[in-house]
Design a protein that fits this description.
CATH superfamily of the largest domain: von Willebrand factor, type A domain
Order of helices and strands: HEEEEEHHEEHHEHEHHHEEEE
CATH class of the largest domain: Alpha Beta
Structural class: alpha+beta
Largest sheet: 5 strands, mixed
């Protein structure tokens, strides 16, 4: 199994280091659009229907005027990203069995691509609005196996680059990521060239991509985890392997488990939850030069209908000016 092989390789020292308006969800000096979700702190349920006056948004610490506010208005461009880890493979097979039902929760205008990864990334199917075509791609992905390490940063980077190719740049861009959240340190070798966590995060921010992980629990990790962590620990600080929860946090997404549901049911629910997100738009009061990273902070208004302490606001942390 890939995890066991990785442990032995590490313990034996066998690894080596090689170390605008268009697009709408991009950002120009004219308009910035931000996806926002509001969840109850204790229960995790979405907030009741809100208005623009229930929010306040700032860029670089400066309050901004909301000029656009909508819910479920924009179609989706989604990359379904599947980890080929042993602990995920069984769930992926079950997902393939019920994929047709889950994909019916997409709307006609939504487009979906399918990618898998281990030590490298493979595009199984490019963006398509043909749901049967996508189901077959998921079935193909579920039949794959790999003994390679799991390189999260490379997977996320390549998924973001695929979203750059989306047919409709005005769509909301999302990576739905099925993973056990157990990465291997990304060794930079000729066999496994890997982008860094910094490069992956920048790609997400430049393409205005939200990451929505569905996390699997791994019994195997309970046994092998301490060995892997001990052997990779000296390198994690210099070569962060990536973390699904952090990718979600940085991009305004939410990391969730199956919550007792079948994989296709959880995927369908996640698609529906994407529809419950709000889109807040503003025109920056202080124009920054192209290439500048601009920090965003979205929160509930103190005089709005909800008590801010009882609710969590999910939104991306910033963007690069284009």
């Amino acid at each position: 199994m890939k995890r066991l092989a990785t442990v032995f390789a590490l313990l034996l020292g066998a690894r080596l280091w090689g170390q605008d308006q268009t697009p709408v969800f991009g950002a120009t000096s004219e308009l910035v659009l931000v996806d926002v979700q509001v969840l109850h702190v204790k229960t995790g349920i979405p907030a009741p229907v809100l208005r623009a006056s229930d929010f306040q948004i700032a860029e670089g610490g400066v309050a901004q005027q909301i000029v656009h506010f909508s819910r479920d208005e924009f179609p989706l461009s989604v990359v379904l990203l599947f980890d080929l880890t042993d602990s995920v493979r069984g769930v992926l097979k079950k997902l393939a069995e019920g994929a047709k039902t889950a994909l019916e929760h997409f709307k006609d205008a939504d487009e979906v691509a399918v990618m898998v990864y281990s030590g490298h990334v493979d595009l199984i199917d490019g963006f398509s609005k043909d749901r049967i075509h996508t189901v077959r791609a998921i079935e193909k992905a579920a039949a794959l196996t790999s003994e390679e390490p799991a390189h999260f940063n490379e997977a996320i980077y390549q998924a973001a680059m695929e979203l750059h190719k989306a047919d409709r740049p005005a769509n909301r861009r999302v990576i739905i990521w099925l993973t056990d959240n157990i990465p291997n340190v990304p060794y930079r070798t000729k066999k496994y060239p890997a982008h860094t966590e910094v490069e992956a995060v920048r790609a997400l921010q430049e393409e205005s991509v939200m990451v929505a992980p569905i996390l699997m629990k791994s019994r195997l990790w309970a046994v092998l985890g301490p060995l892997v962590r001990a052997s990779e620990a000296p390198y994690e600080k210099s070569f962060p392997p990536g973390d699904a929860r952090k990718y979600a946090e940085w991009t305004g997404g939410q990391a969730v488990g199956l919550r007792g549901k079948r994989p296709e049911e959880r995927l369908a629910q996640l698609i529906d939850e994407l529809r419950a997100r709000y889109t807040i738009g503003y025109r920056p009061s202080n124009a920054q030069p192209a290439g500048m990273f601009c920090k965003i902070h979205v929160e509930l208004a103190p005089d709005g209908r909800l008590r801010p302490k009882e609710w969590s606001v999910l939104a991306r942390q910033g963007y690069y000016r284009k």
